[in-house]
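Data deposition worksheet. Section B asks for the primary sequence of the deposited chain exactly as it was used as input, without tags or linkers unless they were present during the calculation. Section C holds the resulting structure in C-alpha cell form. Section D is free text for depositor observations; keep each observation to a single sentence. Incomplete worksheets are returned to the depositor.
Section A, Depositor: J.P.
Section B:
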Amino acid sequence: MPLPNILCIAKDPISGNTTHTLVCERKEEMIEKIKLLDIETQAAIVSHIQEVTHNQLNVLDLSWLEEGSELAHDELEPLSRNMAASLRQLIDQRDKASECGQNSGGQHLSVELADTKSKLRRYRQELEEKTEQLMDSKHEVERLDQELQRLKQENQSLSCEARSVRVYRDEVDSLRERAARVDRLETELTRCKEKLNDVHFYKTRVEELREDNLTLMETKVLLEEQLSASRGRCDKLHTLEKDNLLLRAKIHDLEMERDNERRRLEELVEENMLLEIGQKQSMNESAHLGWELEQLTKNHDNTNTESKTPRKSLVHELNECVSSRVLKLEKENRELQASIERLKEENHVLQEQQLHTQELDRENQSLSNKLERLQGLLDQERMTNQDMESLGEELLKEKQCLEREMHALRATKDRQISELESEKQHLSDAVASLQERAQSNSEARVREVEAKNRLLHQSITDTSSRLASLETQLKVVSEEADRLRERAGRCEEVEREAARLERSRDSLSRENHFLEAEEAQRELQRLGKQEAENSLLSKENLDLRCSVENLRSSTARLPTLQEELQEVQRERQELQRRLEEASEETQGEKKRAERLELNLAALNQEKRRLEEEVEKSKEERVEVERKRRETQSREEELRREVEELKEEIYLLSVFC
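Section C:
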C-alpha cells in the first residue's frame, strides 16, 4: 500500500482521502463519486494518481515486513534505503506545512484587525450623519404639522363651498335632463308624424301584395294543371312499365331460344366436322382403291377381257357413290351455314331490342325526375303564397294598431308640448325676476331667492312627475320604433325573398333551356332511332321472308316466325304512337315554359318594387340621421343656456 502525500492532504483533503481510498475495497464507489466532482478537482486527483503510478519510488512494498517472508541482504538494502528517503521526505513536508500554518495565522490576524478599525471609523461617521438627518427630519415634521393644520382649515371651508355647489349642480343637472327630455320628445313627435305618413305607403304596399297574391294564385292554378298533366304522364309510365316487363319477358324467352339454337348449332358444327372427316376418309379410301385397281390392271394385263369389264364397272360405281356422298355433305354444310347466319341475325335483333328497352328505362327515369322537380316547384310556390298572405294580414293589423297609437300619441304629445313650453316660459320668467331682484336689498333678495327656490323645487317635482309620464310615453314610442325596426327587418327579408325568387327564376330559365335542348336532342335521337328501327325492321322483314322461303320445309318454325313478325309490327306501331305522345309532351313543355316566363316577369316587377321600397327606407334613415344631428345641436345650445343659468345662480348665492 503506498504512503499518502501529507502536503496534498493538508491543501486538499478530498484528494487525499480519494488517494487513500483508491486502493480500498470501495474502489468502484469512490470512482463514481470522483466522476460527480467538478473538472478541476478531478484533474488534481488525476495528477496525484499519476505521481503514484508513474514513479515507483513513491510506492513502498511492505510485504517483506510480514512474517514468513525471507529476503536476501541485497534486496533488503534498497528497500530500507527507499523507506528512509520516504520518511525523510514526509518529515520535511510536515515541517514546511507547520511553518506555513503559523505564518499564515499571524498575517490573518493583522489583516482582520485593520479591517475592524476601518469598519469602526466608518460606523462612527455614519452615526454622525444619521443624527444630523434626524434633526432635519424633526424640523420637517414640525413644518408639516403646521401645513396640515392650515390645509384642514382650507378643507373645511372648501367642503362647505362644495356642498352648496353640489346642491346647485344637482338642480342644474335636473334642468339639463328636462331640457334634453323635451328635445327628445320633440324629435319623437316629428318621427311619429313621419311614421303616420308611412302608413299610407303601407296601404299601397298591402294593395300591391294583394295583387301579387292573385298572380301567385294564378301561378298555383297553372302549376296544379301541370301537376295533373304530369300525373297523367305518370299513369302512362305505369302502362309503359308493364309493356317494358312484357318486352323483357319476351327478350328472356328469345334469349333462351337463342341459347337452344346456339347449342343445336354447335351440335350441327360437330356433326359437320365429323362428316367432313368421314368424307376425307372415304376419298382417301376411294383413291387407295383406285390405286389398287390401277396396280391390278398393270399386273393383270394378260387376263381376259371378261374379267376386266366387271372390275371397271365396280370402280365406276365406287366413284359415283363417293361423288354423291360428297354432294350430300356439301348440301348439308350449306344448310348449316344458312342456319348459322339466321341465328346471328336473330341474336342481333335481340341485342337491338335490349337497347330499346334500356332507352325506355332511361326515358321513364327522366320523366319521373321531371315530375319530382315539378312537385318541388309547386310546393315552393305554395309556401311563398302562404308567406305572402300571412305578411299581408300582419301588415293590415300593424297598420290599424299604428293608426290608433298615432292618434293617441298626437293628442298626448300636443298637450305635453304645450305644458313644457309654459313651464319653460315660467322658468325663464323666474330667472329674469331673480336677475332683477339681485340688484335690490340683500336680505329681501335672499327671501325672494328662497321663495323662488321653493317654487323651483315644487316645479321640479311637477316636472319630474310629468317627465315620468313622458318617459312612459317615450317607452311606448321606443316600442313603436322597435316595431318599425322589425318592419325594416321584414323589408330586408322581402329583399332576400326577391333575391331568392330571382335565383329561382334564373334556375327555371336555365332548366327551361336545358329541357328544350334536351327535348330537341331527344326528338332527333328518337327520329334517328325510328329511322334505324324502320330500316332494321325492313331488313328483318326481308330476312324473314328469305328465311321463310328457305325454311318452308321446316313447318314447325313457320308459325313462330309469323308470330314474331306480327309482334315486330305491333312494336313498330307502338313506337310510332310513343313518338306522337312525345311530340305532344314537348308542346306541353313549351307552354309551361311560356307560363314560367310570365311568372318570372311578375317576379321581376315585384323585385323592382321591393328595390324602390328599400331606397325609400334608406332615404328615411338619412332623414332621421339629419334630425338626430339637429337635436344634438339643440341639446348643446340648451347645455350652454344651463351653464349660463348655473353661473347666474352661483352669483346670486355669492351675493346672498
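Section D:
Helices lie at 6-11, 13-21, 27-35, 39-54, 73-299, 305-437, 442-550, 558-655.
The chain has a mean pLDDT of 68.
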